[in-house]
Design goal:
Layout (H helix, E strand, L loop, with lengths): L1 H32 L4 H9 L5 H11 L5 H14 L1 E4 L4 E4 L14 H36 L4 H15 L2 H13 L18 H34 L3 H8 L4 H29 L3 H6 L5 H10 L3 H29 L7
Length: about 325
Amino acid sequence: MIVFIIRRLVGAVLLLFVVSAVTFSIFFVVPRLAGATAEDLASRYVGKTADEQQVRQMADKLGFHDPLVVQYGRFAKGIVAGADYDYGPAAEHCPAPCFGYSFLTQAPVWPDLLDRLPVTASLAAGASAIWLLAGVATGVISALRRGSIFDRAAMGVALAGVSLPIFFTGLLALGIFSYTLGVTAPGSSYTALAEDPAQWAYDLILPWITIAFLYAAGYARLTSSGMLETMSEDFIRTARAKGLPERTVVLKHGLRATLTPIVTIFGLDVGLLLGGAILTESTFSLNGIGRYAILAIGANDLPKVMGVTMVAAFFIVLANLVVDILYAVVDPRVRLT
C-alpha cells in the first residue's frame, strides 16, 4: 500500500508538471506562435495609457525577451518557491504558490483563491453528499424492483435531471422556492460554517439540491445498471445459497461490487466541483472559484485564469489519487501493489 501511494504521488507531481507546462504554453507560447511580441504580452501589465517605452521597459522587467525555457522555469519556480515582481519603483515578493498578480487589482492571485475556496468547498461537500446518497439509494431500489412504478418514475426523473441544464433548474428553483415561497435563501447568500452552521446550511441548501438533482440522476442510472448486472453473478447466488440475509447479500456483496465505477466518477465529479462550479456559482451569485474564473475571463485577467487552472488541476489529480486508494476498500477483488 505504501509503495503504491508513493508511486501515485510521484505520478501526481509529474502530471501537475505537465499541466503547468500546458498552461504556460497556452498563455505565453501560443500567442507567440500567433504573432504576438514580447511587448504585446507586456502591454497587459501596464494599462492602456502607457507609451511604447513603458511597454518595452515592462517587457524587460518581466523577462518576456528571455527564451521560453527560461520563462517557463521562472513560472514554475514561482509556483514552488515564490517570485519577485517589479511593477514600478519597488519589487514585491509573491509567496508560493505564486500564480502572478492580477492585471486589474495588482494583488497576488493565490490569496484571492483562498478567500473563495471555502464557498466552493462547501458547495461541493454538501451537494456531493446529497447526490451520492440519493442517487445510489434510488439506483439500488430501482434495480431490486425492476419494472415497477418506482423504477419507471425514478428513471424518468433521472433522465430529466441529466437533460436539464443547471442554469435552468437553478433559476427555476430560485424563482419558486426563494422569491415566491420564501422558504430558501435568495442568491448571493453565504455564511461561513464556523460562524453559524445552521445558517450555512440554510444558505446553501438550494444550490446543493440543484447540483444534486443533476448529478444524482446519472448516479441512479449507473447504480441501477450495475446492480442488475451484479445481482445475476455466481457469487450472489452462492451468498444466497449460504443462507445469508437478503440485506447482507444486497449491501455487502451486490452493492459493494457495483461501487467501483461509482467511486471513479464520484472522485472526478468532486474534483471538478472543487476546481469551480462555474454555472452554479454564477446562477446563485456565490463568490466561489467558479465565479472568480468567469469574472477573470471576462476581464481578460490572465493570471487569475492561470491560477484557477492550476488549482482545478490539483484537485482533480488529488481526487484521482484518493479514488485509486479507495478501490481496495470498496471492492475486495482489487489489490493495490
